[in-house]
Amino acid sequence: TLYLKMRALSSLTRGMVTSRASTYAKPSLDLINTNQAPVTYEENSAVVYEAFITPDEEESIVKDVMKRMRRRRYEQGHWDAVITNYKEIQLMPELLSDGSQSILRKVHSHLEQTHFSEENLVTDFTGEKVPFQWLPCHAIDLQKRGEITAHVDSVKFSGYIVAGLSLLSPSIMRLKPAALTEIDDGNDGIYNTTQENEDSIDKSDIFKTKSLEGAGHVDLFLPTCSLYVLSGVARYKYTHEILACGSTFQSQKKNDKEARPEKINVTREQRLSVIFRDEKRSF
């Protein structure tokens, strides 16, 4: 089957996936390279949890999602020109299997327990804290030749968190400082640069592209079964994109237990991702 072929192709870069994935596992520090990070980047704003779900859980949700996508055709482009050669659906819980619903609840529970605090809650006109709500999840099936280019997810409806389960194929996500046109609330923080990186920024790109070229970047390696989470600076002030097939991830920290190679050449095949966002709250 397609799933079994993809699973075999990604086995070399999967790492040692445990038989049971911990819901409240710690982030895998060696999956993020901040060697070229700009001074504005905040390290805890982007994290990756390796082996967040088990291979059996991956197989279950892939089958469920693909079954609902099979009658859709691959789209050549999106209205905002960010993504090409893809299928996308919204995942309504009542239409999913019990196993897939359990996986979505597992991710929601983890994010609620580890990435939300009192300071993330909005206060209404009575002074009461407003509990957050989850938007419906959606899934993106990206072909091998497909692209997800640099962008900041819209803040019109979604809030503090953008997270995703990576399925079928490993990939590399790159974060870059966002251009002014991509930042909802102006230039707070991003362009208050130090002299150290002031000269490296190509200011002619500020109003031409979605990301600020020449200002540095952060790479996230996303093995299959992993969960990435963007919040704070990484969510609002940085663009994210999926690098092309054949890109190389340079490991920043050596992982002795799993003996991960220092350089990983990622042959990205068909990639399926399930995206999680909280609802925007404002008063």
Mean pLDDT across all amino acids: 80
Shape: globular
Main beta sheet: strand number and arrangement?
Answer: 10 strands, antiparallel
Q: Any idea what the radius of gyration is?
A: 19 Å
Number of strand segments: 14
**How much of the polypeptide forms β-strand, as a percent range?**
25-35%
Q: From N to C, what is the helix and strand string?
A: HHEEHEHEEEEEHEEHEEEE
Poorly predicted runs: 2-23, 185-207
- How far apart the termini lie comes to 50 Å
Instruction: Count every helix, treating DSSP H or I runs of 4 or more residues as helices.
Output: 6
Share of helix, binned: 10-25%
Helix/strand/pairing category: alpha+beta
Write a structural description.
This protein is 19% helix and 30% strand. The chain has helices spanning 2-9, 11-14, 55-69, 98-114, 195-198, 232-236, and strands spanning 32-33, 46-49, 83-91, 122-123, 129-130, 137-151, 158-167, 171-177, 218-222, 226-231, 238-242, 247-250, 263-266, 271-279. The strands form three sheets. Strands 1, 2, 3, 6, 7, 8, 9, 10, 11 and 14 form a ten-stranded antiparallel beta sheet that branches. Strands 4-5 form a two-stranded antiparallel sheet. A hairpin with a 5-residue loop joins strand 4 (122-123) and strand 5 (129-130).
